[in-house]
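Need a sequence for this fold. Nothing fancy.
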């Protein structure tokens, strides 16, 4: 398994992996599968600033993880939200753990202070994964989303990456770090 930054040729494979979660689960609140061109633009926009990484197993995308802006107000720029998806055929092989570990290392190097994960509940596997990395439950948003005929709760888990200081340095972009 190789964990690496996504390349545009991965977009189709990432979308195919993600399609399952959109159609068959409430794990993502996205309800419509995006068109490939729209999805490519989305990934390119995210990866201009934030890490977007994939787990490549024998030239197959087995999972992906990324960070993105938490909220639009500029004072939030030192925190990010993360998401992670593993192909259902590859679950239980440690791919999510590798992806999350690498993503957190990158975010620390970029200079972020806090990371949030929003998890649709119930989702014991995701909760266990994030908690194994030191994330703690912050809050539960009751019946925050309606999908597949069900009102779903969303939990917010958080992890602090570094101590606060009075004059924080602006976070680096992932492209600046990766060269």
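Here you go.
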């Amino acid at each position: 398994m190789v964990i690496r930054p996504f390349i545009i040729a991965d977009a189709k494979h990432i979308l195919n992996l993600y399609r399952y979660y959109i159609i068959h689960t409430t794990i993502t609140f996205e309800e419509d599968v995006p068109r490939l061109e729209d999805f490519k633009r989305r990934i390119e926009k995210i990866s201009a600033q934030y890490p977007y990484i994939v787990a490549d197993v024998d030239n197959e995308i087995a999972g992906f993880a990324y960070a993105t802006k938490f909220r639009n107000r500029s004072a939030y720029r030192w925190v990010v939200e993360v998401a992670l998806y593993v192909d259902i055929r590859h679950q239980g092989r440690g791919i999510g753990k590798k992806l999350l570990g690498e993503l957190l290392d990158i975010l620390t190097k970029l200079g972020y202070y806090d990371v949030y994960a929003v998890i649709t509940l119930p989702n014991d596997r995701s909760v266990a994964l994030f908690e194994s990395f030191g994330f703690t439950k912050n809050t539960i948003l009751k019946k925050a989303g309606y999908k597949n005929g069900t009102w779903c709760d969303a939990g917010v888990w958080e992890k602090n990456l570094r101590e606060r200081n009075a004059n924080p340095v602006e976070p680096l972009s992932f492209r600046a770090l990766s060269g």
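For context: Helices lie at 11-24, 36-47, 95-110, 124-132, 174-178.
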